[in-house]
Amino acid sequence: MRAIPRPTFVFVHGGSSNARAWGPLQNELALLGHRSYAVDLPGHGDNADVPAAYYRQPQDVTALAAAPSPVRGITLRHNVRHVLDVLRRLSAWGPVVLVGNSLGGLTISAVANTAPDLLDRVVYLSALCLSDPAMFTEPWDVADDNLLDAAAARIAVPDVRDPGVARLNWRSAHADPALFAELKAAVMADSTDHQFRLLLDSLDPDENYAVLEPAALVRADAWGRVPHTYVRLSEDRGITPAVQDHMIRAADALTPHNPFDVHTLATSHTGYFSHPRIFAELLADLI
User: Fold this and answer.
1) Residue 185 CA neighbour count, 13 Å, CB half
2) pLDDT tens-digit series, residues 74-100
3) Contact, 180 vs 251, CB < 8 A?
């Protein structure tokens, strides 16, 4: 009898992040006998031309603002094309489970809309899942007491020349204890200071919010055919539990025949980095 191959987990990072953020989780999955692949979306990660001024110390904020962005001109379509190339190559080895965090939810939704037959399951780790066009144009009927918006505003680099690009100076928190504490509370409160420093140093400064477009809306006739899981993070102060629950309810209303399989972990927005073992065990249990 021929054994059924285990799925490969494919990870899609959130805003200002990259494939490096998934390293601790990938290590834990490997210890459980699972393959995985972490995607660097276009303009992110090791192959991106991140402004040199971001890494120089002391920082020259004027030079940082003037440097061109590696994500200029990148759209959701570029992200989808890149991820689909990875999925097609990996699908030769067996089923694929696509996992996204935060802003990466928009990309995994659009991928599932485009090629549902390539996916065994799609998993949202406190990730954006938009299912109604009004989510782009109308206020959401939910109390959102997140800490991330205000913290991100404090590290936003002004006067960036590339349109649509948000540049966040994460590394500036190393020199400002109050700012460090504010960002940590918003993103990874359940970590040690050392862990959070490691995360800060792994982050890219730039994100192009052109990915917030109607093509990211999940479709019942495509995405709705794929088994989908939402992992609620109950201590998340970036995308709060109330916002997560609102997105789950809206998606379930779109596909009542195939609702979200919902699980809850008591971690922060980037708990997969600070507590990777419990995420690995949950993902392994899904399959």
Assistant:
1) 12
2) 999 999 999 999 999 999 999 999 999
3) no
Measure the CA–CA gap between 263 and 233, rounded to whole angstroms. Answer: 9
d(CA 12, CA 21) in angstroms, rounded, equals 10
- Give how far Cα 212 sits from Cα of 61, 74, 75, 169, 249, Å: 27, 12, 9, 22, 20
Q: Is 149 helix (H, G, I), strand (E, B) or coil?
A: helix
**Residues 149, 127, 34, 189, Cα dihedral to 10°:** 30
Quote the CA–CA distance of 232 and 60 in Å, as a whole number. Answer: 39
- pTM exceeds 0.85 for this model: yes
Spell out where 58-164 has E strands: 96-102, 121-127
Determine the angle formed by the axes of helices 76-90 and 104-114, rounding to 10 degrees.
Answer: 60
The domain limits of the chain are 8-286
CA distance 282 to 287: 9
Q: What pLDDT, in 10s, does the model give residues 198-249? A: 999 999 999 998 889 999 999 999 999 999 999 999 999 999 999 999 999 9
Sequence-distant (≥ 6) Cβ neighbours of residue 58 within 8 angstroms: none
**CB of 260 within 8 A of CB of 229?**
yes
Q: What angle do CA 269, 10, 199 make, to 5 degrees?
A: 35
Q: Which CATH class is domain 8-286?
A: alpha beta
Measured distance CA(94)–CA(6) in Å, rounded: 7
Rounded Cα distance between 272 and 127, Å, is 12
